[in-house]
């Protein structure tokens, strides 16, 4: 598949791995109150690549952080499988974030004093687990960093650092990977390589990925685009292309 031309074609909606119901998030009080999320209900499909798009302040990152247990909603539910995140204590939330959620940040968030290999293995090391050798080899080969494992982050290009971050997110075989503007700090070529890796993780490994992006070219790699506006779901698009995403964004800007 070529980025920006055609998304993956699916027969239809996939069983959800994350279920969001009537989610609200309010910051501040009184005249300073900001309603970042305003009753969002959404299913995020398994073995599916979903993009979340919307203008600045639409609630994209807040939604992702609530779904990834990095922030606590004011009200509503986020279900990861059978687990209601609001009902988990701190210890169970920590285990859930470590074992069942992967995260890819725009700024890579690698530990500068560790090698690429140590960064990839870090979540498992914290959990006191060793990587499965076959899975390790598969992921390292898929992201193309086998010859860079001994390098520290400062010895790697931005694209290579993000490859390491993707490998780290996949290594624990999480239920879902959240990616927050994963190509935002990359040039177009490196960005396309990272998007191809995420696409391959869905198609070949059955990974579920949810990506916040503002880029219609990035969104064209996904199976589904969910649009937010003013903290609410404003529509969705399946099998997106760059052109259909741009058209839908233009419709939203006109209030259509």
Automatic annotation (TrEMBL):
Entry superkingdom: Bacteria
Pfam families: ABC_tran (PF00005)
An MF annotation (GO) of this entry: ATP binding
The UniProt record lists the keyword Thylakoid: no
Cross-referenced InterPro entries: AAA+_ATPase, ABC_transporter-like_ATP-bd, ABC_transporter-like_CS, ABC_transpr_LolD-like, MacB-like_ATP-bd, P-loop_NTPase
Gene3D superfamilies the UniProt entry points to: P-loop containing nucleotide triphosphate hydrolases
Keyword Nucleotide-binding applies: yes
Cellular component, GO annotation: membrane protein complex; plasma membrane
Occurrences of domain ABC transporter (ranges): 18-255
Keywords: ATP-binding, Nucleotide-binding, Transport
PANTHER family xref list: ABC TRANSPORTER RELATED (PTHR24220:SF685), IMPORT ATP-BINDING PROTEIN (PTHR24220)
Protein's recorded name: Putative ABC transport system ATP-binding protein
Species whose genome carries this gene: Nocardioides aurantiacus
């Amino acid at each position: 598949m070529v980025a920006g031309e055609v998304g993956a074609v699916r027969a239809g909606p996939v069983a959800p791995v994350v279920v969001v119901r009537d989610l609200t998030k309010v910051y501040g009080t009184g005249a300073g109150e900001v309603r970042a999320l305003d009753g969002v209900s959404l299913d995020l499909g398994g073995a599916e690549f979903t993009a979340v798009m919307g203008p600045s302040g639409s609630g994209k990152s807040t939604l992702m952080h609530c779904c990834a247990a990095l922030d606590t909603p004011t009200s509503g539910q986020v279900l990861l499988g059978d687990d209601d995140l609001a009902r988990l204590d701190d210890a169970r939330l920590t285990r859930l974030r470590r074992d069942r959620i992967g995260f890819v940040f725009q700024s890579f968030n690698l530990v500068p004093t560790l090698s690429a290999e140590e960064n990839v293995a870090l979540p498992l090391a914290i959990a006191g687990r060793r990587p499965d050798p076959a899975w390790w080899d598969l992921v390292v080969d898929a992201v193309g960093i086998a010859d860079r494992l001994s390098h520290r982050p400062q010895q790697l290009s931005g694209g290579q650092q993000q490859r390491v971050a993707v490998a780290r997110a996949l290594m624990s075989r999480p239920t879902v990977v959240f990616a927050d503007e994963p190509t935002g700090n990359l040039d177009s070529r490196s960005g396309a390589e990272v998007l191809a890796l995420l696409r391959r993780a869905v198609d070949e490994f059955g990974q579920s990925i949810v990506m916040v992006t503002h880029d219609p070219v990035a969104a064209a790699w996904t199976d589904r685009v969910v649009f937010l506006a003013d903290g609410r779901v404003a529509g969705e698009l399946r099998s997106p292309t760059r052109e259909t995403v741009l058209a839908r964004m233009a419709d939203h800007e006109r209030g259509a």
